[in-house]
């Protein structure tokens, strides 16, 4: 996985390099102009950029990328005072944001969700990891957080069957699927609490392994239904867990503590779709996204 990391603080760049150099193909940049030049000459799977940059700030950098047709997913890093700016950046297609100071292991868990993976549909079917019910868009998934990228590649491929789906639609839908499907697996099936997740990340344990081992101890599944028409797409995600009280999830804008581990996924989802509704138990979520061409 190729990552461009942009930060004007040398110590943070060095720390990122030391932490991730053996796991990912990392390129560093110290300001927005340098990052833009590098992006124009290379392709990346993910861009991670600070908002406060010299010469060209993070927002201007992303705006120029998008104006040039570069749709590389990106995460932003910001201080508390820049939180409203970070929200605005979501509307440009950011997949996540982190508040300084942040833990590298917490950042790693987010990067892994967006890591590219070759999708072999035949293998997924034959292994029983995906079951598609004949004649409709109802799918059963074996809950594995490490298979998240493959599952989402499979789901977005189904959405691409609609002649109305655009690149912009798929970017937004992918962001939401990453968050809500991950929630269904890690919090729904595996039953990992936000406190357990925070403790696992702070202790530098392999969080994905921890979640998948929990899932393996259950006989539960995750179910996804896709409903598409001329107006938009509705996605229903249901897990066989105990559910949760949606009202108990804090608003990460009002309470940005703990690096937004709690409530982050629902917040990100709301920034990219038209509506999101949970059932009373909290183990089923339904979201709707209007096709981009309809909005414009």
Condensed summary:
With 296 residues, this protein is an alpha/beta fold. It has helices at residues 10-20, 32-41, 58-67, 83-90, 104-113, 121-126, 148-159, 167-189, 194-202, 207-216, 264-270, 292-295; strands spanning 2-6, 25-29, 46-50, 74-78, 96-99, 130-132, 138-141, 222-228, 232-239, 275-278, 284-290. Strands 6-7-8-9-11-10 form a six-stranded antiparallel sheet.
Textual characterization of the structure:
It is built from 12 helices and 11 strands. It is of the alpha/beta class and 296 residues long. The chain has 2 domains: 2-113, Response regulator (Rossmann fold, 3-Layer(aba) Sandwich), CATH 3.40.50.2300; 121-295, Heat Shock Protein 90 (2-Layer Sandwich). The strands form 2 sheets. It has a 6-stranded antiparallel beta sheet with strand order 6-7-8-9-11-10. Strands 2-1-3-4-5 form a 5-stranded parallel beta sheet, sandwiched between helices. Helix 3 (58-67) links the parallel strand 3 (46-50) and strand 4. Helix 8 runs antiparallel to helix 11. The chain is globular and about 50 Å long. It starts with a strand and ends with a helix. Mean pLDDT is 82; it is low at 256-261.
Low-confidence stretches: 256-261
N- and C-termini, Cα separation: 34 Å
The number of helical segments is 12
> Main β-sheet: number of strands, strand sense, barrel status?
6 strands, antiparallel
CATH topology of the largest domain: Heat Shock Protein 90
SSE class: alpha/beta
What's the helical proportion of residues? 40-55%
Number of separate domains: 2
Nearest-integer average pLDDT = 82
Modified residues (4-aspartylphosphate): 50
Keywords: Phosphoprotein
Protein name: Putative two-component response regulator receiver
Organism: Leptospira biflexa serovar Patoc (strain Patoc 1 / ATCC 23582 / Paris)
